[in-house]
Structure formats: structure tokens, C-alpha cells
Design goal:
Distance between the termini of chain B: 83 Å
Strand content of chain A: over 45%
Number of domains of chain A: 1
Number of strands of chain B: 13
Distance between the termini of chain A: 31 Å
Strand order of the largest sheet of chain B: 1-2-4-7-6-5
Oligomer: heterodimer
Shape of chain A: elongated
Order of helices and strands of chain A: EHHEEEHEEEE
CATH topology of chain A: STM4215-like
CATH class of the largest domain in chain B: Mainly Beta
Helix content of chain B: under 10%
CATH architecture of chain A: 2-Layer Sandwich
Radius of gyration of chain A: 16 Å
Largest sheet of chain A: 8 strands, mixed
Radius of gyration of chain B: 23 Å
CATH class of chain A: Alpha Beta
Order of helices and strands of chain B: HEEEEEEEEEEEEEH
Number of strands of chain A: 8
Strand content of chain B: over 45%
Number of domains of chain B: 2
Chain lengths: 146, 231
């Protein structure tokens, strides 16, 4: 496992992932970080783009100061061709699989790849696009706020 | 008493020669015909770009056989009129033909191109289209009909539907286009691609065909890239 250390300026797992993405030359060249979007994608977005979808964490261990959770992170790559989506998926795997990083008040202790990327093609006539999904389960630590 | 006014017909003012074109037959020259001035109106709601002109023509019955509906009259200006109704006038022994000319106002933005896909397979087996023009410079009015907001796949997608009135019936037998097939696209004068969802009013003599289209909004064919370039 590779520990990337502290992602400067990050305030949570999503902003830390943005930071890791931006510092990865190959990934940022394939999809600039401003096309990595958490939540709903605006209609003007150019492909390929990636939608980052965090899924609610499952609490694993709670101490008086810390909370250890498992959080699912999904990268949805939208591209015009299968090959582009698959290539970006490979870069995401190379950049994020089995890494650790922190943002001061929290950390991803291990980012575990959940199987190979999955691709499908949109079926709406006016949208011709591929969605390739890369899934991770992250073991996280954060300071308790409660 | 038998009255034949045919000789008197040729004494009328403003007679003009016509050519009667009947599919599958030789053209018939009508040396002299009389007509009422054409009345023009908007064929459909098309921003004033869709015109229909209705006009009455008459000529002696001994000059031609009864013209069939759908036959074309070429007037002395070279304009084509499609016959919608024929009356055989008994007294003056003439064919009275109500005819219609349909047109799309000629403007550079009222032109369309039809593209056809040919496919190559990528290494992974994806069928990737290359789009080639097969019909260019077709008169067409891209009339916006409705646009609606939709959220699909956690993204915002504007869906805009157009009625594209075509000056050429691309569903005609001699044209190798299957309009609603994904292998074909309409392209407007700005280069925007449209997928034909329905094709209506094909092979009508009284109306222009309509391609009901949606603007393609994603990918290299889509408008999202246009908007990014405009930023």
C-alpha cells in the first residue's frame, strides 16, 4: 500500500480525492480535475468526465475520539467511446487502488478496489455515451465530531 | 342545342403555356391555360418559413386527358404546382385544376444534410460510426417544438424536440434513407446533429414531410461540446 500523506487543503474525503486526482499527472491529463464532479453534472460538461459518488459509510469501530468506517466510493466515467472510458478506468485504478492519504482530521487508511471496471452504454436516443464505473471500498478514520 | 365554348377560350386575356407532368408518362404541353392568381399562406407554424400557394388552372379538355391527382403543372415561370383536385367543367369543356405549391423559404439556415453511418470496430469490439453526407443542401425548416429539463444518470440533460419540414421526401423509394434508423442523422446549417425519432406525412401531395427530431446532446456528435467551445 502506498501512503500519499496529507492532501493539502482537503476538508473531507471528496475534496481529498480531488486533490489526489489533480496531483496525478496522467489522470489530470486524461480528465482535468474540473471535470471530476461530485453530485449532479451540469449540462455543459464535456466528455470524458467523471462523476464521483460517495455512498454512506458503515461504522466499524468507535472510540472516544475516533470513528472508523467503511465508505464506498464510485467513479462514474462518461465517455464517447468504450476505449476512452476503459483507459480512464485504468488510470483511476492505478491512482487510487491500495493507497492511503489524510486530510488532518481524517484519513483513508486503505482504498480497496471492488472488482474490475464495469461498462454500459446509455440507451436514450439523444445521448450516445458510455458509462464505466470503478468501485472502491475505503477504510476511513476521522475525528469524532459528536 | 350543343354549345362548344372552346374556341372562345383562346380569346381570353393572360393565357400562358403550361407543361403537365404525369409520373410514368411523357410531358404534355398545354399551349394556353388560364389561371387565377395564387394565394399564399403559412403551411404550418414555421416562423413564416413554410409556404403553401393555392392556385386554380383551367385549359380545354381536348388538349389533354384528365390529369390525375398528384400530377405536376409547370407554369410559365418554371414553378411546379401539384394537382389536388380536378373538376370537369361541362359548359366550357375545360379541366379546372386546384393545385398547390409547397415551399420552404430559401435561406442559408434553412438547409439540411443527411448523414449515414459506416462502422468500424474498435479493439474492444465497439461499433464506432463514421458519418458521411449522402444528401446535401436539402431545403429544411428546423422548427423548435418543445424543450424540457430532464435529469438522467445524475446529470442535467435538456431535451429539445424539433419538427424538421423537408423540401425533399427522404422516405421516397428512390432515396436510400430509413429515416428513423440510428444509421442516419439530420444536420442543420450550424453542424448540429439530430436523431430522427418519427417521420410523418411521407408521400403526401398536399403537405411537406416532417421529421420529428431530437437534438443530440452528448459526445462528439452533441451540442455540449459546442457550448464548451462557446465559453
Amino acid at each position: 500500500m502506498s501512503d500519499l500523506g496529507t492532501v493539502l487543503g482537503a476538508t473531507g474525503i471528496e475534496s481529498a480525492i480531488n486533490g489526489v486526482w489533480n496531483s496525478n499527472t496522467a489522470l489530470a491529463a486524461a480528465v482535468p480535475v474540473n471535470r471530476l464532479i461530485t453530485g449532479r453534472v451540469p449540462p455543459s460538461e464535456e466528455m470524458p468526465y467523471v462523476r464521483l459518488e460517495p455512498e454512506g459509510g458503515r461504522e466499524m469501530v468507535r472510540t472516544n475520539a475516533s470513528l472508523y468506517s467503511a465508505v464506498n466510493i464510485h467513479f462514474h466515467i462518461w465517455s464517447d467511446t468504450y476505449d476512452v472510458g476503459n483507459a480512464v478506468a485504468g488510470l483511476i485504478q492505478a491512482a487510487f487502488a491500495s493507497i492511503a492519504f489524510n486530510w488532518g482530521r481524517g484519513a483513508v487508511l486503505d482504498m480497496k478496489l471492488d472488482g474490475p471496471p464495469v461498462s454500459r452504454q446509455a440507451t436514450t436516443p439523444e445521448i450516445k455515451a458510455w458509462e464505466t464505473t470503478v468501485n472502491f471500498t475505503c477504510s476511513t478514520w476521522q475525528q469524532r465530531q459528536d | 342545342m350543343h354549345l362548344d365554348f372552346t374556341p372562345d377560350f383562346y380569346l381570353l386575356d393572360n393565357l400562358e403555356p403550361l407543361t403537365l407532368q404525369i409520373t410514368g408518362l411523357s410531358d404534355v404541353t398545354i399551349p394556353a391555360a388560364v389561371s387565377m392568381p395564387a394565394e399564399y399562406a403559412e403551411l404550418d407554424h414555421g416562423g413564416g418559413n413554410l409556404l403553401k400557394g393555392d392556385r386554380l388552372f383551367a385549359w380545354p379538355r381536348n388538349v389533354s386527358q384528365r390529369p390525375p391527382l398528384g400530377a405536376k403543372i409547370m407554369d410559365s415561370n418554371g414553378d411546379a404546382w401539384t394537382i389536388l383536385a380536378v373538376d370537369a367543367q361541362g359548359d366550357v369543356k375545360s379541366w379546372d385544376c386546384r393545385a398547390r405549391a409547397l415551399s420552404i423559404v430559401y435561406r442559408l439556415d434553412n438547409l439540411a444534410t443527411v448523414l449515414k453511418a459506416s462502422y468500424t470496430k474498435s479493439a474492444c469490439g465497439e461499433a464506432q460510426p463514421t458519418w458521411t453526407p449522402i444528401l446535401t443542401g436539402i431545403g429544411a425548416r428546423f422548427q423548435p417544438v418543445e424543450t424540457e429539463a430532464q435529469i438522467l444518470e445524475n446529470a442535467e440533460w435538456p431535451k429539445t424536440t424539433y419538427h424538421v419540414y423537408l423540401g425533399v421526401d427522404i422516405f421516397a423509394a428512390e432515396i436510400p434513407v430509413e429515416p428513423a434508423s440510428a444509421d442516419f442523422r439530420l444536420v442543420d446549417s450550424t453542424g448540429r446533429h439530430y436523431r430522427i425519432m418519427q417521420y410523418q406525412r411521407a408521400q403526401r401531395i398536399d403537405a411537406l414531410p416532417i421529421a420529428v427530431c431530437v437534438s443530440i446532446i452528448e459526445g462528439t456528435e452533441g451540442a455540449a461540446i459546442d457550448r464548451m467551445e462557446d465559453k
